[in-house]
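Lecture notes, unit on protein representations.

Consider one protein chain, 319 amino acids long.
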Amino acid sequence: MPKRLVCLAALLALSAGCSDIPADRAAADEVESRPAPSTATPAATPTPAPRPAPPLPQLPRGGRRLVPAYQLVAFVGAPGSPALGPLDGNLDERARRLERLAASYRGGRVAQPVMELIVTTAQGAPGADGKYRSRIDPEQIGKYLAVARKHKMLLMLDVQPGQAKPIDEIRRLEPWLRQPDVGLAVDPEWQVGPGQVPGRVFGRTSGAELNGIAAYLSGLVAKYRLPEKLFVFHQLTGPIVRGESALRAYPGVLTVKSVDGIGNRGQKVATYRGLTTRLPKGIRTGFKLFYSEDTRHGALMTPAQVLSLRPRPDLVIYE
């Protein structure tokens, strides 16, 4: 072969060798040049920590049950009415006096003073709506509650219905009864029917009616997660409460029968025993002392004498 052709063949062969790069190698180089896909697991969204439940409301001196932890001792009254009891005015001084009195009731329990404020008072005249009762100014309730809270006391709102329906008077008090340190008392001696005048006849109620009030209070306790609610009904004689055997305890409500006997010590003790010997299950007892009436009949019973009563009164009221 001529020398020129030999050189030309050599050049063609070299050119072909230089361009003969496999296609799969080129593709591989391209793949290697790309950034590798991320294999990291995406960060999980953090679960928020559960919020702690708000603390449950407590009684003024701690806890959520009244008995058997506390011995309740009360003053009763209304603003500007000394005949109705010692809580007629000068509330801070009366609160300090009540504190000292409550501390004298020893016997293994913590003293819990109670301010019993008469918010609805039966009267001998019909009034504008013919219901034979008057109502306290709501601002006065706030004033008494502020003093009670200052001294870590319970406030108990007392209702003398006259011719009004007790539950109607009580529902008006709901803004206060929703509070953890406000209880209720009803005085059926002053609850009269149509054509009757308070003070001329003894009023009356029934076990079924008292159950309805206790059930209403129990509903408030459950709805607002309240501590045990104090509910007191006053009783002077047996006929004031008809069908008493129907009475029963309701969740979250401490129902107390306060025996308001009048006379010398023997008479008061006899009345107390007579009204508490067949007490329905779960109903507790209270005992009232009258500074004026009891003194006229002898002498005011001492705390030791009151605590010797059986059953032991969970509530002692001074009027």
